[in-house]
Amino acid sequence: MSHVYAVIMAGGVGSRFWPKSRERTPKQFLDILGGGSMIQQTVRRLESLIPPMNTLVVTNIFHQDLLRRELPFLPSENLLVEPVGRNTAPCIGLAALWVHRMDPNGVMVVLPSDHMIRDEAEFLRKITTAVDVAEQSRGLLTIGIAPTHPETGYGYIQFDESAEHNPYTDKGVFRVKTFAEKPIIETAERFLASGDFLWNSGMFVWRADVILKEIGIHLPELYANLEEVKLTLTTPAYRATLEQAFGKIKGISIDYGVMERASNVFVVRGDFGWSDVGSWDEVARLSNGSPDGNASKGTVILRDVSGSYVDAGSKVVAAIGVEDLIIIATDSAVLVCKKGRSQEVKEIVDYLRRKQMNEHI
Amino acid sequence: MSHVYAVIMAGGVGSRFWPKSRERTPKQFLDILGGGSMIQQTVRRLESLIPPMNTLVVTNIFHQDLLRRELPFLPSENLLVEPVGRNTAPCIGLAALWVHRMDPNGVMVVLPSDHMIRDEAEFLRKITTAVDVAEQSRGLLTIGIAPTHPETGYGYIQFDESAEHNPYTDKGVFRVKTFAEKPIIETAERFLASGDFLWNSGMFVWRADVILKEIGIHLPELYANLEEVKLTLTTPAYRATLEQAFGKIKGISIDYGVMERASNVFVVRGDFGWSDVGSWDEVARLSNGSPDGNASKGTVILRDVSGSYVDAGSKVVAAIGVEDLIIIATDSAVLVCKKGRSQEVKEIVDYLRRKQMNEHI
Question: How many CB pairs under 8 A join A and B?
Fold first, then answer.
C-alpha cells in the first residue's frame, strides 16, 4: 500500500508516569510494558503495512533529538517538528500538507505514539479496512474500540448500526451518531449496556485531501494558516512560516474541531486488546500478575505482598506486608501509591514544578 | 575522673536497618536519628566525663578503617580490633586487659555503640553513680532502664528494693535478683506491672580488675586465653597471640557468662529516654511526627498519607494514599514495609545473601 502513510503523533509531554517519565522523556519514549519504547512499538507494529519511508512522526522541538535516537531507521525528513504544541488539529493539518505533497492520493493513518495493542494482526486488519473505506467513501474514518468495562477515562463514540446511507456495515464500519466526552461512571455503565458505544481511541484514517478540505470547512482560520505553510513546504522559508503560523493559530483537537462537526464520519469497530496506558494503575492492570496479584519489573523481593505492581528500575526494591500498592523506583525518585489513585501522580509533578524542583520533573 | 575509661563495643554487623545499613556500614555508622552517626554520638555524649584519650573502641577487622574516619580524634592505639567476633564476654575481657594495664585502678564504663539517649545529663549522672558504687563495692554494675511499655524486644533485670546487704539503695542502686530473657508479651506485661523489673540496656560499669577476676571464676577458659594475650599486650606478638586466642575461645555474652552467675551484681535504675533503636519501627516511634503521624527525612512529598515514616536518602520520595508504612530509599535499594513488621527486614537480607546479591547487602 505505497500510497498509505502513517502519521504518528509524538508530541505528548504528560506527567502521569512520574517518576519514570520526565519532561525530557515522556511516556512514548519509555519501555513501560516491555518490548521497547512505546513509539518504537507503534512504528514497528505498522511495518508490514506501512514502511518507515512512509511513516511521518510529529514531535516538538524538545524531543526531536531523542526521537531520532529512538527511530534511527526513519528518514530524517519524515520527522515533523511543531514549533509549539497546538493540540491535534494543527498537528494533523501539518502532516496532511506533507502527505498530500508526497502523494495527492495519499491516505493517512493517524496514530498516537503511546498506546498498547495486544492483537496486532487484528489491528492491521482493521486499519486495512479503514484505508479501503476511506478511499471508497472519501469519508473520515476513526477506530472505535469495543469496550470491555465502563471506563471513565476515555471518550466514547456512538454508532448507527443501520445500513441506511452506509454500504460498509458488513465490514464492521458504521456511521457515527455522536462523540461523547469522558463520562461519569453511571453514564459509562449506560454506554456499555447500550451496546452502541465504542471507546474513542484517537486513531483516524482518511485521505490527506479529504481532511484538508474538512479543515477548510470547519476550521477556516487554521486552514488559512496551513495554506501559507503549504507554499513554503520545501523552501528555506518553511521553518519561519511554520513558526509564524503556529504562533497565530488556536489549539484545538481534531475531535472537537472536525469530527464532531463533519457529516461523512465512519467508525471502524475494533477489538484488538487496546489501551491508551493512561496511568500506573492501567499499567498494573495490563501487566500479567502472579496468583497473588503482584506484577513486577526488575529486582523485586516481595514478602507477604498482594495486588501490587513494582517497577524497581535499576535498583532492588523489597516490600513487606503491604497490599494494593504501586511502587516505582528510578535513579533519582521513588513513588509509592495506593492502587486506584495513580491519577494523582500529576499533582506530585505539579508540586515539584511549584517548588521548582526541576531536577525531578 | 582520669581513672575512668569508656569501652565502646562497635563490632555489630546487624542487618535490621537494610537498606540503609549494609555489611560495610552497620547501624553504629549511620546517622539514623539525626545529629551524627550513632557511634559519634555515643563518644560525644560521654566527653564531659571521659575524654577521648580514655575511650577505647572495640571493633572488627572489616570496620576499623571506617571507624578511624568516624572518630578521627581518637588515639589510634585506643582502637581494639577483634580478629573475629566472639560476643561480648571476650570483647569486654580484652578491653579489661588494656584498661588494667593503663591503670590498675581503672574503672570501665562499657557501652554499646548504637543506642539512643535523650536525657544526656541524667545519663551522665547515672554513670557517675555507677562508677562510685563500682569503686566502693567492688561489684559488677549494670544500668537498668525504667520500662515505659511491655517491650518484648529487650531482656529484663529483676531487682531487689530492700536495703539488706545493700548500702546503695538511696542512690537508686539495687541488688540484682535475676536476669530474664526477651519475654513474650504476657510476661512483659507482668514484668511492667510488678514494678521491680528494668530493661537490660547492655551497659556495664566495673573495675577492670574486678571483671577480670569474675571472668577467671565463671569463664576460666576465656580467662586462660586472656592471660596469654596479656603477656604480649605491647609486644610485636600481640596480633598473632590475640588471633590464636580468639580462634580458640567460644562466643559467649557477658550477661550469660558472668552477670547471671556472679553474686556481687548491682543495677542502677536509669530513666533517661533510652532506646536500643533496634528496628525501623523503633526509629519511626522515636522520630517526631507531624499531627498526621508522619515523620520524614530528606525530600519527601506526602499526599493523603498518615502514620508513615519516610527516609528519602538523596532521592525524592512521593507517596499517595497510604498509611502506616516505612519507606526507606537509598542509592541502590528501596524498602517499603508495613509498620510493625520491620523485624522481617533481616529476612530480606537473608534472601539477598542466599541469592548472592552481594552488591545489595
Answer: 119
User: Would strands A116-117 and A274-275 be described as parallel, antiparallel, or unpaired?
Assistant: antiparallel
Interface contact A318-B348, CB threshold 8 A: yes
Q: Is the ipTM of this complex over 0.95?
A: no
Minimal Cβ distance to A336: which of B325, B333, B360: B325
Spatial distance between the Cα atoms of A43 and A288, rounded to a whole number of angstroms? 24
**Averaged over B272-290, what is the pLDDT?**
91
Q: What percent of chain A has pLDDT over 90?
A: 91
Task: Give the residue extent of every domain in chain B.
Answer: 4-275, 280-360
Please list the residues that pair with A197 across neighbouring strands.
Answer: A158
Q: A351 to chain B: nearest residue by CA? A: B301
Task: Say if the Cβ atoms of B320 and A338 lie within 8 Å.
Answer: yes
Q: Write the residue in B303, B312, B347 that is nearest to A344 by C-beta.
A: B303
Question: Largest Cα–Cα distance of chain A, in whole Å?
Answer: 65
Determine contact, residues B122/B247, Cβ cutoff 8 Å: no
Distance CA A75, CA A254 (A): 26
Averaged confidence pLDDT in chain A: 95
Q: Which CATH superfamily is domain A4-275 in?
A: Spore Coat Polysaccharide Biosynthesis Protein SpsA; Chain A (3.90.550.10)
Question: For residue B298, which residues of chain A lie inside 8 Å, CB to CB?
Answer: none
Q: Which of A33, A7, A9 is nearest to A279 (CA)?
A: A33
Task: Please tell me which of the candidates B303, B334, B351 has its beta carbon nearest to residue A348.
Answer: B303
